[in-house]
Write a structure and sequence with these properties.
The complex is a heterodimer of chains A (221) and B (221). Chain A has 221 residues and is mainly alpha-helical. Chain A contains eight helices and no strands. Chain A has a single domain, classed as MetI-like fold, CATH 1.10.3720.10. Chain A has helices spanning 2-42, 45-60, 63-73, 83-108, 112-120, 125-155, 167-178, 181-211. In chain A, helix 1 packs across helix 4 (83-108) and helix 5 (112-120) packs antiparallel against helix 6 (125-155). Chain B is mainly alpha-helical and 221 residues long. Chain B has one domain (9-214): Orthogonal Bundle (MetI-like fold), CATH 1.10.3720.10. The longest helix of chain B is centred in the N-terminal third of the chain and has 42 residues, at 5-46. Chain B is elongated, with a radius of gyration of 21 Å. The mean pLDDT of chain B is 93.
């Protein structure tokens, strides 16, 4: 038992990298999700088409394949990004594609009457979106965004396969050195579980914050 | 470096052989996920309270931790406790258990969609709990969740490349080995991406058909 506690600092060091990648990729994903989600519904044809292609490609292939492609194949085309940048970029692009669908769905679910009311009050299209529609849709985006954040956290385990020494990578190293498989992996599973709980908790708070001053949550009638 | 079509054509047969393994693993993994998931959903709802609670915690834990770690865990721990499975079988088991947790939640939504009156009516007709589940509840609960289960089939398909981490010769592993031999990763990895994209898009089309047939979960029946 004391020995397994001695392994903890090494694993926590790995957890730090895991969380770093999760946070940076989440920020990238958030921006991409909003841009691509809006572009798909409201941008001029070529841009909407570009957004749709991005979403379909990153949702249609698997995160690990994308990671390998950017890490092994892209340098052959002359673009060398390094493992850390590749990890953040690919995981961000991957989550962003799923997030774009969340954004599109939530905005599409805001009743037409809200657009019409905003227009009749003199809002332009962009103003109505920014001031009336998006704030309502944002609340409905939070629960699915929380699920995506947990999927992202879990996906960061894949970066261990492109040489980054995240939590999963360190677990592998420790296992090879000590052969105490069960303890190490249970410890690692618990660390991931706690990180996921933390995300769930944070998203719950965000949802309550956004719901303040409303009669009902989300888009429920 | 540009895309070498002749080389791509030369490695295509080997990749397709790998794709067969990928599809097999997905199909068998889904069989495990569907049956184990259903068992967990029924126990959670109809079993003794302590058991239902434990199953609920297990589902939560599996869903919050990375599949890759679960895969390593089974791969290293099963032999230690005397269970000798091939890497492919271990991979199928890991995929099955991981997605069973997701499927259980889907089933649960379906089961909750069956009104209380159905249970009471069955009880008043003298049905045993087993008969009620089999003859009354599940026949109503299952059809509406078929499209949602289809989405998890696609998600699992996109996760099978992870089996390459435990040496299963599925399509990504074949691509990596091919790439390492020739120092050309561009063609194998791009081909694998295209294969996944094609199959995922086809499956998405199929699921849209299922949604038209069975309705989407949550929409009033």
């Amino acid at each position: 038992m004391t020995d397994s506690l001695a392994m903890l600092p090494l694993l926590l060091e790995g957890l730090r990298l895991t969380l770093q990648i999760t946070v940076l990729a989440a920020v990238l994903a958030l921006v991409l999700a909003i841009v691509a989600g809006l572009a798909r519904s409201y941008a001029p044809r070529p841009l909407a088409w570009l957004a749709a292609t991005y979403v379909e490609i990153f949702r249609g292939t698997s995160a690990l394949i994308q990671l390998f492609w950017f890490f092994f194949a892209l340098p052959l085309l002359g673009v060398e990004l390094g493992a850390f940048v590749t990890a953040v970029l690919v995981l961000g692009l991957n989550s962003g594609a799923y997030g774009a669908e969340v954004v599109r769905g939530a905005i599409g679910a805001v009743p037409r009457g809200q657009w019409e009311a905003a227009t009749s009050l003199g809002y332009g299209r962009l103003g109505a979106l920014r001031r009336v529609v998006f704030p309502q849709a944002a609340l409905a985006m939070v629960p699915p965004a929380g699920n995506l954040a947990i999927e992202l956290l879990k996906n960061t385990a894949l970066v261990s396969m492109i040489t980054l020494s995240d939590l999963t990578f360190r677990a592998q190293i420790l296992r090879a050195e000590t052969l105490r498989t069960v303890e190490i992996f249970i410890l690692v599973l618990v660390l991931y579980y706690l990180a996921a709980r933390f995300i769930t908790h944070g998203m719950g708070r965000l949802e309550r914050h956004l719901a303040r001053g409303r009669d009902h949550g989300g888009l429920a009638p | 470096m540009t895309f070498d079509w002749a080389y791509a054509a030369a490695i295509l047969p080997a990749l397709l052989e790998g794709l067969v393994i990928t599809v097999q693993a997905t199909a068998l993994g889904m069989v495990v996920a569907l049956t184990l998931g259903l068992a967990m959903a029924v126990v959670r709802q109809g079993g003794p309270r302590w058991l239902g609670w434990s199953v609920g915690q297990f589902i939560e834990f599996v869903r919050s931790t990375p599949l890759l770690i679960q895969l390593y865990f089974l791969f290293y721990v099963l032999p230690e406790i005397g269970v000798a499975l091939s890497p492919l079988a271990t991979g199928i088991l890991a995929l099955g258990v991981h997605y069973a947790a997701y499927c259980a939640e889907v089933y649960r939504a379906g089961i909750n969609g069956v009104s209380r009156g159905q249970w009471e009516a069955a009880a008043s007709l003298g049905f045993s709990p087993w008969q009620t589940w089999r003859r009354v509840v599940l026949p109503q609960a299952l059809p509406p969740v078929i499209p949602a289960l289809g989405n998890y089939l696609v998600a699992m398909f996109k996760d099978t490349p992870l089996l390459s981490a435990i040496t299963v010769m599925e399509v990504l592993q074949v691509a990596k080995i091919t790439g390492a031999e020739s120092f050309r990763y561009l063609e194998p990895l791009t081909l694998v991406g295209v294969m996944f994209l094609a199959l995922s898009l086809a499956a998405a089309q199929l699921i849209r058909g299922l949604e038209r047939r069975f309705g989407r979960l949550g929409r009033a029946a």
